[in-house]
Amino acid sequence: MQLLWCLLSLFIFTFTVRAIHESEVGIVDWHTKLVGVPMYASHLTKPVFHEDTVFTATSNNVLAALNATDGSIVWRSIHDAQDAIMGFKVHDDSLYALSGPAGSTLRIYDVSTGHLIHEKRLHNPMEGKIHEPPTLGLALTLVRAEGGDQSIVLTNGHTVQCIHSSTGEIAWEWRSEDQSSLVMYTHIYPDTQTSTLYVAGFAKSVRSYTLHVSTLNLTTGGVIASVNIPASIANTLTDFLLLGPSRVGSSSTTSIPSDANADAFGPSLVWLSPSSTASNAPLSLFSAPLSPPLKGKVLTIPNTPYKHIQDVGLSDNGLFMAFRDNGTAEVLGYETGGSPVGVVWDFGDVTPSASTSGSHFVGALNGDGNPCIGKIVWSNLHNQVIHQTFEANLQQGTGQVTGFTFPFETNEHGTIRHVAFSPSSHLSPTNETPHKLLLVTSTGSLQLWDRNVLQWVREESLATVQTVTIVELPPTREEVIGAGVGGKSESFWSKIARQIGDTKNLPHYIIHFVTRFVTGSYATPSSPISLARSGPSTSTLPHLFPNRSPASPETLVRDPFSFRQLLIASTAHGKLFALDTSTGAIVWSRILGLGWARKVGGRIAPAKAFMVRKTETGGGNGVPEGQEGIALITQRIADNTLVDTVIFHFDPLTGEDIKTVTSTDGVTENPRVNVKDACGRWVSPLEGVDAIAGPLIDVFLLPDGKDTIGMLDEFLQVQLYPDTPITRASLTSLAPQLYFALRAGTQVLGHQLGLNDELSFFHVAFPTWGVSFGEDEEVVAIIKSANKGREVASIGRVKGDRSTLYKYLNPHLSVVISAPRTSSPRSGTCGLYVVDTVKGTVLYHVSLPVVNGKCDIQAVLDENWLVYSYYDDDAEAGGAKGYRIVSVEMYEGNGPDEKTSSSDITSYSGKTTEFSVYEQVFAVPHGVTAIATTTTKFGVSTKDIIISSRKNAVHSIPRRLLNPRRPKRKPTSEEAEEMLVQYDPALPDDGRLVLSHYYDVADVRQIITASSLLESTSLVLAVGTDLFLTRVATSGTFDVLSENFNKMQLVLTVVGLAVAIAVTKPMVRRRKLREQWYQ
Amino acid sequence: MKLQLLGISAILFSTCLCLDLTGHVQWNDICPNYRVLGPAKVVLDAGKYSARITRNGNFSIPDVDPGIYALSVTSHDYIFDQFRVDVVDSTSPPHVRSHILGTPLISATSAFLRYPIVLVPRHKNNYFTPRESFNLLGMFQNPMVMIMVLTGVMMLGMPYIMKHLDPQTLEELKSQQGKIASIHNSIQNGDVKSGLSALLAAEEESKASVASGRAPGNGTTIQQRKAGRGSRRR
C-alpha cells in the first residue's frame, strides 16, 4: 500500500514538480539563521560562557550555543510555545535545561553537538503553577556523587528531585509536606561535604514575607530540619539570597583547617529587611549562617542602610553586590575563610549622573577559579564604555581591580541591557587569557568584545520582525535614459556629451558582447547577482550576522529582473533594518527614536508600514520630486503606561528622515537628524511624528492617489497624515466610499465615516452593521483579501466544454476567524466566515474543531480563492485525525456561463449573494503555521499556495493539486484538457515541493510574497525566528531563456548544418551538370 | 530501579489512568544514526502529547490519557510511517496499528504492530532535481536529431543503393512507380475536370508530364514520389 502510494505520488509528480537544482542553493535563496534576543531577567536563563561557547536561552524560545570566537551558531534547540524554556545550567560536557510550566521537563544535551541525551518529565504540565515571573520557584544545580553526576532540581516551588545524569532516572524526590501552605521555595544549595541540601524560600505573612529554610539529606532526600526565620521581606525576587560558604570557589580547599567545625562553613542566608518595625525604617542587611540542624543565630551586617542587594551569579562562591543609600556599590562576602559576611570591595559611587549611565555588575569565575565581578558603565564624556574587573582571592583575603575602555557604538546599538563575561586571570600574568564580554543591547543585538576589540555582532532583533515592506530599487542610469523616463528629454548637446563620455566604456562593451555571444552567458534568474558594484567595505566589523553590505544610493540599483529589492523590516526592539533581498545582507539600519518618552523609557511596537508616494504639502520641507517613502505606523508604549501613535516617515533606500511636518507646526528640526558618521551610520535615531495621543484602532490608506494615511483613534475619529486642508478635503469627498470592519469582542462591526461640523473637526466612524458569531465566539482575526487593490488578470476560468466559470470578485471580502471565549475553552467551535465588509453579509461559513484549547487556523483569500488549514480531530468511524487544507473557490451564478459582474456591481445589489462554491479538503502530513499565495507583476501566472509547516520547512503547493474541481474518478477528456487530475485525499509529501530544502527555517509566523520584473517569478519571504527568501516560478520561467537552454547545442547544430551544406553543395552542382549533359 | 520508579509514579499520579508511551527508532541504511536524523519529535494528534527522540533513538511520551491517537514523527529530512495508537488503560500495553495519511483512522483491516513502537525511517527527502548537462550522445539520442541524420543518410546513400540493386527489382520498382504515376495522373485529371484552378492544374500537369516523360534514370524515383505527394496535398 505504501509502495502504491509512493508510486502514485511519483506518477503525479513526474509532470508537475519543478524543484530547484542543488547548485542554485544560496544563489536563488538565502537563509538567515537566528536565535533571538537572550532572556537575561533570570539567573537560570541569562547567557553564560563555557569554554569557547556562549549558551543562551532566548525570548524566541530557542536554546542556543554560539561560538564565542566567530559568533556562529554551534547548535540550537527550538522549543514549542507550550514548552517555554525556564532555565539551563552547563556542567562539564552536559547542558541541563528546564522547560514547560513551572519546569515540567528536564532535558540533558551534549554541549558540543546539542544532541539530546535524556528527556525527563518531572511533573505533569497541568500541575505546573504559573508564577510571575515564570522562573520563580525553580532552581537547578549539579553535584558530583558516587556513580556519576546528579542534577538536583527544584520545580513548582515545592518539589525537589534528584536525577542521575547518566541514566535520566530519578534517585529521590521530596515534596514539602504542606503544598497548600504559602511556603514557596526558590533557592537550593547542595553541600557535598556534609551531604546536605539547603532549600530556602519564603512564606507570606500578614504584611510582608518571612523566610523558610529546610535541610535535606543529599543521598536520600530525607528531611533533616526545617525552620522559619522571622524576617519581613518586601520583594521576594531580589531581597534575599542563599550565599555559599567561603571555601567554595577557592582553588585551595586544603587551606581550611581540618579541625574546624564543619557547621561554620555551611551557606548563609542573606536578606534585606527593615531594621525596626517603623513603617519607614531604613533597610538593614541580615545574615544567618546555616548548618544541617539549622541551629544558629541571625547576624546583622554593619554599614546600614542598604538600598538593595544583587546576586551577580557568584552567590554559590560567596560573593554578592549590595548598594547603599548613598549610591555606593559594595562587594560583600566572607573576607577570609570562616569569617562572617562583610564588605570585600568598594566600587565607589555608581549613581547615574550626567556623565555616566547606570552601572551593570556581572560575576563569573576566571580560568584560575577565582570569582571576578565586572562593572560596566557608559561614559558620556568619553563616549566609551568603562569596564572594571574586580578579582577576589578570598583565601588570601586580597583582591585587585583592573580596567579598560572600549568603543561601544551607542548610535547603532542603543544602550547596554545585559553583560555576561568570561574574565581573564590577572593574578597570573604569565598566561594572557582572553577577557571576553558579551553585551545584549536595547536594540536586541549581541556583541562579543575581547578586551577592547569587537569580535562579532549578531543582530538578533531580526528574529522579532513585526512589519515587512518590500521596496523595488530604482533602475540604473542607463535604463532610465534608455526608457526615456525621467520627465525631461535631454538636449542634443548633452546627449552628445553623454555619448562621448560613454565611449570610454566601448572596449569593455565590445569584449563583453563578444564573450556573451560566444559563451552564451546571459543574465539568468539563477545567476548570482553581482555585488561588485557596491563600494569598498567601510565596515570595520570583522563579523556581522547577517552580513552587512554598505551601499550608497548609487550602488542601490536594480538588477535586470529586479530580484534585488530592499526589505524594510521593523523589529520589536525599536530598530529598522533594510536587507538586500538577493543576499540577505543588511544595507542600512537605524534606531527608532522614542521622542518625549526617552526620559521615562518605553518601547516602539510597529503596527503597519505603507509605501507612500511623495506627499504634497503647503510647506513641505523639500521632499525630492517623485521620491517614495515608507510610513511606519507604530504605537509607542512608554514605561509610564502612556500609549501614543507615532509615524516614522523615511526614505527606504537610505533610512533618511523625510517626514512632512506642516510649516505651521513650527517644529525645531534637529540639525543632526540626517547626519551620518564616517562609517556611514546614522548619528541620531529616526524620530517620528506623534499622530494620535492615544492607541491606534485601525489604519488605512486613503484611495486619493496621494497615499494619505488615515488612522482611527480610540474615539473612532479619523486622523490624517499628512494633515492638511487638501487631504481633509479629499477625505470628505471619499468618505462615503470608505467601509471598515472592526472587531468588537464577540462581533464584527461595520463602520462608515461621517463629519459633524458642529461637534468635531474630525470625521468619526459610526457603526452601520454588526454581525455576531454565536454566544461564546470571540473574533480573533480579520484577514483582508490578499489581492486588494491589485488588478485581476482573468475574470473567469474556461472549462473543457468551452463554457466559462466567472470568478466571484467582490472587492469587499474579508475572512473573519472566531474562537470560543477563553472562559469556556472546552465547549464550542472555531469559526471561519467570509464577510462582505460593506453590508456585513456572511457569504461563507464553516465551524472547525477546537484543538488543545486553541483555534489554530491559517487562512488566505486571494481573488475568489480561499485556502485555510485546520486540525481535524474527529476519530469517529470514517474520520481520520490529521491536518487539513481546504481549498474553496467562489464563482458567479449557479453554474457556468452565468455572470453577475460581481467586481463592479454595488454591494447593495441582491446579486452579490448569487454565487456558487466549489470546495475540497486535502490531508497534509504536518501542521501549517503560515499560508500565502504567490504574487506576480500582472497576476497572469498561476497562483500557488506557499505554506510553512511545523517541521520548519517552507513548501509550495501547486494550484493544480489544490483545484477544488479535481474529479473523484478518472478525468474525462474534457477535464484532462483543463489539466484536472484525479482527486487524491492526501497531498503528496514530496521533498521537491519544499522550497527551503535542507534549511531549517525555524518558527515561521508570516509569509510575504512580492513580484519581480519577471511575470513568471515571485519572491517568497518567510519571517519568524529565522528569515528565508527564495524565488518561485509557478508556471515555469516562460519569460526567460530556459535554464536548460544550451547555446552550445545550438551553435553545434548550426555549424553542423553549415558543414552539411558545404559538403552537399558541390555534389548537387555536379549532378545538375550531369543531368544537363545526359538529358 | 525501574520498579521503584514505577512505584513512585504510581504514588504520584494515582488519580491518573494514563500511561507512558515508549518506542525507539530503528536505524537503517536510510538513516543510520542520530547525527543525520537531527532533532526529531514524536507527536500524538496535534501536539497534545509529544516527546523528542533522544540520542540513542528512544522516546517516551509521558502521561498519555486513554484514547485513540494518530502518532506521527516530525523530522525535517526523513519520512516515517504513521501509526494509530489505542491507549486503553495504564496497565495493558497500547494497541499499535499502521495508519496511512488520507485514510480513515479506524479501519478493521490493519494488524497489530508490536509495542514498544518501532519507528522505521522510510525515505529521505530529495529536495533537488539534477541539472541537465550537455552531452553529444544525448543530443544524438534525441528523436528529432535522429530523423534528421537518417534523412541525410538516405539522401546521400539512395543513389548508390539504386545503383547496386539488381535490374529485375529495378524493373519491378519502375513498373510500380509507373502505376502510381498513372493513378496520380488520373486523379489530377479528375481534379481538373471538377473545375479546380486552371493554373494549378497546368502546373501539376506539366510536372507530371516531366516526371513521366523523364528517362527512367537513377535517382528520379524520389523526385517522382515527392511530386506525387506534393500534388496530393494540394
Automatic annotation (TrEMBL), chain A:
Domain EMC1 first beta-propeller intervals: 19-460
Source superkingdom: Eukaryota
Single Gene Ontology BP annotation: protein folding in endoplasmic reticulum
Keyword entries, A-Z: Endoplasmic reticulum, Glycoprotein, Membrane, Signal, Transmembrane, Transmembrane helix
Subcellular location: Endoplasmic reticulum membrane
Membrane protein topology class: Single-pass type I membrane protein
Residues of the signal peptide: 1-19
Cellular component aspect of the GO annotation: EMC complex
Domain ER membrane protein complex subunit 1 C-terminal: start-end pairs: 862-1077
UniProt cross-references to InterPro entries, sorted A to Z: Beta-prop_EMC1_1st, EMC1, EMC1_C, PQQ_b-propeller_rpt, Quinoprotein_ADH-like_sf, WD40/YVTN_repeat-like_dom_sf
Chief location: endoplasmic reticulum
Name of a matching Pfam family: Beta-prop_EMC1_N
Subunit structure: Component of the ER membrane protein complex (EMC).
Family from the record: Belongs to the EMC1 family.
Official protein name in the record: ER membrane protein complex subunit 1
Organism annotation: Boletus edulis BED1
From TrEMBL, chain B:
Disordered as annotated region, ranges: 207-234
GO cellular component, one term: EMC complex
Molecular function GO labels: carbohydrate binding
Swiss-Prot/TrEMBL keywords: Carbohydrate metabolism, Membrane, Polysaccharide degradation, Signal, Transmembrane, Transmembrane helix
Entries under InterPro entries matching the protein: Beta_sandwich_EMC7, Carb-bd-like_fold, EMC7
Record-level GO BP terms: polysaccharide catabolic process
Pfam hit, one: EMC7_beta-sandw
Subcellular location: Membrane
Ranges that cross the membrane: 144-162
Residue span, ER membrane protein complex subunit 7 beta-sandwich domain: 40-147
Signal peptide: 1-18
Topology of the protein relative to the lipid bilayer: Single-pass membrane protein
Domain of life: Eukaryota
Predominant cellular place of this UniProt entry's protein: membrane
Protein family: Belongs to the EMC7 family.
Protein name: ER membrane protein complex subunit 7 beta-sandwich domain-containing protein
Species: Boletus edulis BED1
Lineage per the UniProt record: Eukaryota, Fungi, Dikarya, Basidiomycota, Agaricomycotina
